[in-house]
Design brief:
single chain; alpha+beta; Deoxyribonuclease I, Chain A; 2 domains; six-stranded mixed beta sheet; 9 helices; globular
């Protein structure tokens, strides 16, 4: 009997040590990054990255150009919160967060369970990153770029909104971004996402031989001086070709040979269809790819002029 009691006491002591160790590790992992616009709660129930009903641990990312900060429409923002709750992404990359201050972004994100936020400026059409996990390794950015570069877990995130006006400017911007990404060790995980405002050579067969599409592009340039999509009357694909040449993979094109537009939504009546919203992965992430898709439903049909994109990875 004495031997049994002694064994029980030893087992209980061991269990307490293990519980203390696990708690200490959790606190260390969830420590907020310095110089970050963030709120933090010790309750970690929202940090699950399991897909609903799936025992496999996954990591879901949403990228969304939400068109001028939801046009400052409170009802639309409330609808977004309900809608995003059905998706449960771990991280959201926003483009066009017009009108959001740092404090407003923090409040907006926190109300949905995203306690970590990053946005470099409050004027114009900033990009932003919100996350259920700490945002770390935050990089400064050139003042001319709409860019957020940071890490979430072991993923390097680039949230991008390229110049809407000319292919020359877009190519200049993507070269700057790719040069920054080239400094990351080739074995690490890199995700680039956002509104690139440029069509892809992988979709060229759906554009180049489409007379209606090409005429719409010519008319758009004629009606919008300063806009340059065409180079010698042909779509300039060099911006996206630079991504492909650098070894990045368009996640939507993995396992797909068809076409789908990311803009416009039903909010616009013109027929100038295009796929310019992307989530790119580098080669080390290919083995963890699960799925990627454009979200088209009753909310996204009218919430913005762009459809959002989702990427799901195995952890």
């Amino acid at each position: 009997m004495k031997t049994t009691l002694s064994s029980l006491k030893q087992a209980m002591a061991c269990a307490l040590v293990c519980m203390w160790a696990l708690t200490s590790c959790s606190k260390e992992t969830l420590e907020p990054a310095a110089n970050q616009h963030t709120t933090f709660e010790k309750n970690t129930r929202n940090l699950s990255i399991n897909a609903p009903g799936d025992s496999t641990q996954t990591f879901k990312v949403l990228s969304y150009n939400i068109y001028e900060g939801f046009r400052a429409d409170a009802a639309r923002i409330a609808s977004f919160k309900q809608w995003v709750d059905t998706l449960q992404p771990a991280v959201i990359a926003f483009q066009e967060m017009k009108g959001f201050t740092y404090a407003q972004l923090q409040s907006f994100a926190g109300s949905m369970g995203y306690n970590y936020t990053l946005m470099h400026h409050q004027n114009g059409l900033p990009v932003a990153l919100i996350s259920k996990f700490p945002i770390t390794d935050i990089k400064s950015k050139p003042s001319t770029l709409h860019l957020v570069q940071a890490k979430v877990l072991d993923y390097h995130f680039f949230v991008i909104h390229l110049n809407p006006n000319t292919y020359m400017k877009r190519k200049e911007e993507i070269d700057t971004i790719l040069n920054r990404a080239a400094k990351i060790p080739a074995t690490e995980k890199v995700l680039m996402m956002g509104d690139f405002n440029n069509m892809s050579p992988q979709d060229s067969s759906f554009y180049d031989n489409n007379v209606v599409k090409m005429n719409l592009l010519r008319a758009s340039e004629a009606n919008n001086p300063g806009t340059k999509v065409l180079n010698n009357d042909k779509i300039d694909y060099t911006t996206i070709q630079a991504m492909l040449t650098a070894g990045y993979h368009d996640s939507w094109k993995i396992n797909r040979s068809n076409y789908d537009k990311s803009a416009p939504t039903k909010l616009r009546t013109h027929g100038n269809f295009t796929r310019i919203d992307y989530i790119w992965m580098n080669t080390p992430l290919l083995g963890s790819y699960v799925n990627s898709y454009l979200v088209k439903d009753v909310f996204t049909d009218y919430a913005s002029d762009h459809y959002p994109m989702v990427l799901i990875l195995n952890r």
